[in-house]
Amino acid sequence: MQHYRPHRRSWLRLYAIKLSMGIYIITGGAIKLTRTMQEREHTLQELEKMEKVRNFLIREHVFDEDSFTDYQQEVEL
């Protein structure tokens, strides 16, 4: 017997930077209460955090899966 479940949109949002197909770096998450991230303080903070991570990745020359793997190996040394 199959149960019917109406489709509901989730309020939970995860924020991530895409490095390549299927490879994401999750920078944070929030409960979505407004249409855009700029409308609430908590989502603005997530946007700022995502920008900091993006700038860090640029400084470290991490731009795809291979460069991310190289960075991980370098850090482990």
Features:
77 residues, alpha+beta, 2 helices, 2 strands, flat
Run of helices and strands: EEHH
The tally of strands reads 2
Shape: flat
Spatial order of strands in the largest sheet = 1-2
N-end to C-end Cα span: 55 Å
Report strand %.
15-25%
Task: Report helical residue fraction.
Answer: 40-55%
- Largest sheet properties: 2 strands, antiparallel
* Alpha-beta classification: alpha+beta
Average pLDDT works out at 85
Domain unit count: 1
The value of Rg in angstroms is: 17 Å
- Report the total helices: 2
Low-pLDDT segments, ≥5 res: none
Folded structure, characterized:
With 77 residues, the protein is of the alpha+beta class. It has one domain (12-76). It has helices spanning 41-59, 65-76, and strands at 12-20, 23-31. Strands 1-2 form a two-stranded antiparallel ribbon. A hairpin with a 2-residue loop joins β1 and β2. The longest helix has 19 residues, at 41-59. The protein is flat and about 50 Å long. The termini are far apart.
